[in-house]
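Possible regression after last week's pipeline update?

I re-ran a chain I had predicted before the update to compare outputs. Posting the input and the new output here so someone can diff against the archived version. Not blocking, just want to make sure nothing changed silently.
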Amino acid sequence: MSEHIMLGDVADKEAMWLPYEMVTSPAWRSLSGEAVKVYVELRRGFDGDEGDWDAIRLMYDMTESPAWRSLSGAAAKVYVEFASRFNGANNGDLSLSIGEGKRLLNLGKSKVMPALNELQVKGLICKTGVGHASRAATHRLTEEPYDGEPATRDWKSWRPMEQRQ
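New output (post-update):
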C-alpha cells in the first residue's frame, strides 16, 4: 500500500496532479530546474486521466503566485522533491541533504542551499528542525496542514522587491 496520496482518492479541480512515479524517476530528477518550471506551466489546466495512480499535488493558486513564478529552477526542483516526499502525515519532517540534492536532482552544493533558502524566503517551505553534520534540517510545506493547524500558505504574502512598500 502506498504512503503517497492517490489521485483516485481526491476530486480536486483547484490543483494539478503530477504522477509520483514520474517525479521520482531519474529522468525527471535529471531535468534542469527551468524544464521543471516549464512542465508545470504546460500542465496547468490539464485534467488528464483520473486513474488510480500515486501523485503529488500542486495547487493552482500557488503555482500562479508571484512567489512560485519567481522561483529559480533549482528551487522549483527542490519544492517538487519535497512535495514527492510528503505523504499526508509527515509535514514538518521533510528534508533534503546536500548529498541527496546532488545525487537525486543533479544539483551541486552551490545550488541546494540557496534553493532551500529561496523557498523559505518566498514562504513555500518553513524550517521546523535544525540540521547538523549527519542530518539535514527538516521543513514543512506551508501549503499543507502542520501539527494540527491549518496550512499557513505563507507564499501568499510574498511580493517581489519592487512591489514592497
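Follow-up from reviewer: compared with the archived run. The longest strand covers residues 15-19. Marking as no regression found.
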